[in-house]
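Quick question, first post here. What does this chain look like in 3D?
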Amino acid sequence: MGNASVDVVSQPSKSKSKRGFRAGHTGWRAALFMLPSWVLLLVFFFVPILLTFYFAFTNLSLTGASSAATQFVGFRNFASMFADPTFRISVLKTIIFLIFSAVIGQQVLGLLLAILMNERNRVFRSVIGVLVLAGWVTPEIVVAFIFFAFFSNNGTFDMILGWFHIKAIAWLYTFPMVSVVVANIWHGTAFSMLVYQAALGDVPKEILESAEIDGAGRFQRLFRVTLPVIKGSIATNMVLITLQTLGLFTLIYSLTGGGPGNKTETLPIYMYQQAFSDYQLGYGTAISLILLVIGIIASFVYMRMLKIEM
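> Answer (accepted):
Ran it through. Tokens below.
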């Protein structure tokens, strides 16, 4: 009788032990399957980030004595950077390019296109969608050649102005920042349009219809109903296009080379010239950290402005 009661009491503990063993075994098998992805993340993501932080505080270069014996120099790269007027001009050019091409251009135009396409028939959406997406799928180097032909002396744009008897303008030399801003808007607006098309589909029609019955006009429904509902998508889109625009290199370098002078020399162009033209890899890496900080600050500002909880 006593042994039977012991077996009854010990049975649940044995079952619990078996379940724990199976759970632990399953966990190890899952970890084993995840191991290749963890190794890839470690090698291609975390190690480069750590090396970037390390090289930013060294005098690493491609030539000279420092290329053979790299030394830790502390904050010397950052001190030299902030004392360099060219760096400060590049920061200003980067912010101007970011505001006009991404925050205002791609963001506003993408939202307007999404609203217009949301209210039109399928044929209209298909035609406009294909035209806008064509800019997005076109490689940056091809976009640069397209707009070089468009804005160059006696190019396509000057030919169009000639129809209205307007004198030809050397756009890439007279208005180089305007040229690269327009090119980037054409190239990147489709991404914002797709984000807002998906967001507008989540706006409850019952709320819009109730607002219309209460007498709200089109703009009142947009600013008081639609935009507050999709503010999460607005913040996500602003962060993504900001990070993409901050790192834009191929389009600007192929179109203007950062010139004339340093009129379109954004931070990626300045970083490239310091790292690969002047061979100062440590200094160039320090500039890349400044780009990262600008992206983080901009993302934080967007979240605070739109009151998004992080």
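Residues 2-55 form the longest helix (54 residues).
The two ends are 62 Å apart (CA to CA).
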